[in-house]
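Researcher: I'd like a structural prediction for the single chain below. Treat it as a standalone chain; there are no partners to consider.
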Amino acid sequence: MRGVFLHRPRGRLFRFFSAGLRNSRSLAIALALLAALATVLAGGDLAVGRGSQIVEITTRDGVRVFSVELASTDEERARGLMFRRSLPEGHGMLFDFKREANVSMWMRNTYISLDMIFIRSDGRIRRIAERTEPLSERIISSGGPVRAVLEVAAGTAAKLGLAPGDRIGHPIFSGKQAAP
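Model: Treating it as a single chain, here is the predicted structure.
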């Protein structure tokens, strides 16, 4: 198969990318989207194939972009990443609980170790549970009211130097509570 876009460097797609990638944030988003596309085209086990969205994680060292699947219904939150055998780097699942509350999670039927990032409604990280034990029914608590939980591959939090107080960017984090 020939690379269609590589043979026309002056085409519309090239101009779009070259004009839009003038800063590191745009470049990070473009690279995350290209990585997701490459995984899908290669037939990989993309955990976020359906309805993937962008989440930005801001640390002292800069902004990291993740492609996530949003779990916003009771059924989606109950299933989460259960039965998945892999989770590519730069991907995850964002559990939206619609309002702040104390949240408890577990790893039942989850075959891969995860980092669970518990996030307040203002987008700030409250707590991080690192390297959770696969298939465990041990309760993992949020440690206080949170709006959402971001699950990423184990070791991601340490690799990025994530800490409580760092910010997660996504439209659900407006600082406002949803109506009951």
